[in-house]
Specification:
about 200 residues, two-stranded antiparallel sheet, two-stranded parallel ribbon, 4 strands, about 55% helix, globular
């Protein structure tokens, strides 16, 4: 790696960390509201979950509980809306600061789902995903993540779609593509609020 590419990588990491600290602050308030609902249901507000990260390394994320751990049902409509825009994942900024994740990048899966994901990919797409995506840290914001949280995947081929979208995200200009993803996230949040008026 050249000195210039190292400096570019360092700057990108710094930008990710600054965005993570500032961007997710409003989600903190929403997350606290969800946490109060979870506590009322006798469950912990925050839980840890293993995820598969860069190079297949397992790391732990902390998440806000938006659904009943026993039944899998959402606590409320508000919890559902907050989850749709990733508000339950604001704690992942800690993973960004630790270097396990970045602001924009592929959505990491739990180990069992990751194994299922890899088994479902055609060999050519699996090789492409490993060479373009798995070599980078996962992120909080991605095209697939936005669509997944909005409930836009009913397709049985969603793992292939995830791999294609992950590769698409990795091959896009950083700041411009990040701005487009934020725009998509805001559009989904506004559309959700309008539906509930």
């Amino acid at each position: 790696m050249t000195a210039a590419s190292k400096e570019t990588a360092r700057q990108a990491k710094t930008i990710d960390r600054l965005i993570a600290l500032g961007m997710w602050s409003p989600a903190l308030l929403a997350g606290l509201a969800i946490g109060n609902v979870a506590r009322e249901h006798g469950q912990t507000k925050i839980f840890k979950q293993p995820r598969v990260g860069q190079f297949g390394k397992i790391f732990e994320i902390e998440k806000l509980r938006t659904e009943d751990g026993d039944t899998g049902r959402r606590f409320s409509t508000r919890a559902e809306r907050i989850r749709q825009v990733g508000g339950d994942e604001w704690l992942q900024r800690i993973n960004i600061l630790d270097g396990d994740m970045r602001f924009r990048g592929w959505r990491p899966l739990v180990p069992e789902e990751h194994e299922e994901f890899m088994d479902a990919l055609p060999p050519r797409l699996e090789r492409r995903w490993k060479s373009e995506v798995l070599i980078t840290p996962p992120g909080v914001l991605s095209t697939y993540g936005i669509r997944y949280h909005a409930g836009l995947f009913e397709d049985p081929n969603r793992y292939e779609q995830k791999a294609e979208l992950d590769c698409y995200d990795e091959n896009r200009d950083g700041l411009i593509h990040t701005a487009r993803l934020i725009q998509q996230l805001v559009t989904i949040a506004v559309a959700g609020r309008l539906r509930n008026l």
